[in-house]
Amino acid sequence: MNLPNKLTLARVFMIPVFLFFLLNQKDFLPFNIPAIEPYCKWIALGIFILAAITDALDGKIARKYNLVTNFGKFMDPLADKLLVNLALIGLMALGKVNIWLVMIIIARDFIISGFRLVAAEKGSVIAASIWGKVKTAAQMVMVCFLIMDISQIRVVGIVLQWLVCLLTIFSLVDYLVKNRGVLKEVD
Questions:
Q1: Which comes out higher in pLDDT, residue 91 or 154?
Q2: Domain of residue 69, residue span
Q3: Pairs from 2-6 (Cβ < 8 Å, separation ≥ 24)
Q4: N or C: at which end does the chain have fewer Cβ atoms within 10 angstroms?
């Protein structure tokens, strides 16, 4: 278990803590703690930012020090999808993000994951594209703005939702076009 893999696991373990504070803003949890409620969105934001930083660090460290492992190749994108998708579902429950955007993002992630499984079965590895990375970064920035939910910058969250939607669709098309040979090999 090297440092990049530990950072990936730390990100996974941060998710339930993040969700606890995100959802403690309303009466979604059976054990709501009113004393910390005014600070919950800021604590959730801090945890989310920390988790996003581990996403940036684990890959850089793994590549720089040649610590790339099969575990990391599998868990890093899974941890990213868990973090972003569960954050979006939590924000949807709070009424801060549109359901259509969450459905598009989750559908794209399922399609790409299925595509990667088919490619792996054929002995191919589909690496993350630059558009997938840009999409993930934009999603993380959008989530931060939606968590803050400050009325003076609410329009930024709305613009980011449209940008993320376009990047999500574009990155899906990019993956499918660049890797269409994988589909030709399917029996």
A1: 91
A2: 3-181
A3: 2/62, 2/67, 2/69, 2/72, 3/58, 3/61, 3/67, 4/57, 4/58, 4/59, 4/61, 4/62, 4/67, 4/68, 4/69, 4/72, 4/76, 5/58, 5/69, 5/71, 5/72, 5/75
A4: C
Banded model confidence at residue 185, pLDDT cuts 50, 70, 90:
low
CATH of the domain at 84: 1.20.120.1760
Please tell me the least confidently modeled range out of 84-93, 107-116, 124-133, 159-168.
Answer: 124-133
| pLDDT of amino acid 123 | 77
Q: Is residue 187 part of a domain?
A: no
- Is position 186 within any domain? no
pLDDT for residue 40 is more than 70? yes
**Cβ atoms 61, 39 nearer than 8 A:** no
Q: Is residue 176 part of a domain?
A: yes
